[in-house]
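tool=predict chain=A
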Amino acid sequence: MPIKSFLKNEKGNSAILVLGLLSVMVVLFVLVISFAGALVVKEQAMSTSQQAALAATATLYEELPSFIDLYEKELKKIEEEKEKEEEEQEGEDEQPEEPESADEEDEDDKNIKELIDEEIDLISGSMAGYSLNEIRNEAIDRILAKQLDLGIAEGLLKKKMAEELEHDWIKEMKESARNTILVNGGELEGAEMIVFDDGQIVVKSSHEVKAAGGGFLSGISENLYKTSRGPELKFVQKLPGWDGRTYSLE
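tool=predict ok
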């Protein structure tokens, strides 16, 4: 019978078995390649989100020196006006106050930039393994946090900083994060920036994962999302209302 003849045909059976095994091996190979590709994309997505968070943080620090200069000028103007008003109220007949000692005058006259320079000298030894820029950023962070706690001129620093964040800095930070994602081959679809989470800038971005091979896997793709955080900023934690704000980067 034909069936018996077919079953007795060992060469034909072997060929079918080999073809079946080859098919399974090809499928497994494609799956392994796709899985390996997904792992590579996962690392790329993580690296991209991390670099975007760092870029946004760096942009914020870049805005601070000019902001500090403007703040110091405005603060000086307010203090001069206050001194003038106090002098007018005291009158000419009152006995003048004793002048402050040289040490007290020096301490009071130090502006934020001078305090930052002192802090850099103070922490440079303990941060020997860090770059000068990282040391300077740490000093800026510490001094601004202290100044915000002082509440000088009815919290002028806190008010001005919140205004700059609202109207200028956030835009620049978003642009830096967006550009970093694009430069690294990431996708802006669904990308977000959180300002701030425990004093950190958080960025979520993705890379596209495409299935390897053709056939039934052809055309299959998906965005793989990863989230990363920038370094902790102590001074932003002193700003009320700036925790957990989410901005789209699309």
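Residues 17-78+111-248 form one domain. The mean pLDDT is 85.
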